[in-house]
Design goal:
This protein has no helices and eleven strands. By secondary structure, the chain is an all-beta fold.
Length: 123
């Protein structure tokens, strides 16, 4: 599975961004698609995930502001981010998991990773 993330940029506090992750290859092996982020001085953390059946998970920091969705026909996963805050500044990575489980929220649960896209939120 190959993943290509895009959509990052420099925005101001309160603005919105939509990240996209285009998947190609053996995508039928991926039960979960997730967005993670890596901020300076912090460990990579889950932001949101979605299964092929549409079940979603959100980290507490994302609840109410971010929405993960997917277009099965195009093999694209989106992360709509609203009300962005400086604390959201990070490199955002999309990832795919073959894990056969009810939830996949750990970095170790994901086998395939995109290259990352920078999101910078200024105050």
């Amino acid at each position: 599975v190959q993943l290509q993330a895009s959509g990052g940029g420099l925005v101001q506090s309160g603005d919105s961004l939509r990240l996209s992750c285009a998947a190609s290859g053996r995508t039928f092996n991926s039960r979960f698609m997730g967005w993670f982020r890596l901020a300076p001085g912090k460990e990579r953390e889950i932001v949101a995930s979605i299964t092929w059946s549409g079940t979603t998970y959100y980290a507490d920091s994302a609840k109410g502001r971010f929405t993960i969705s997917r277009d099965n026909a195009k093999n694209i996963v989106y992360l709509q981010m609203n009300s962005l805050e400086p604390e959201d500044t990070a490199i955002y990575y999309c990832a795919a998991s073959r894990l056969y489980s009810s939830v996949a929220i750990r970095v170790a649960d994901y086998q395939y990773w995109g290259q990352g896209t920078q999101v910078t939120v200024s105050s």
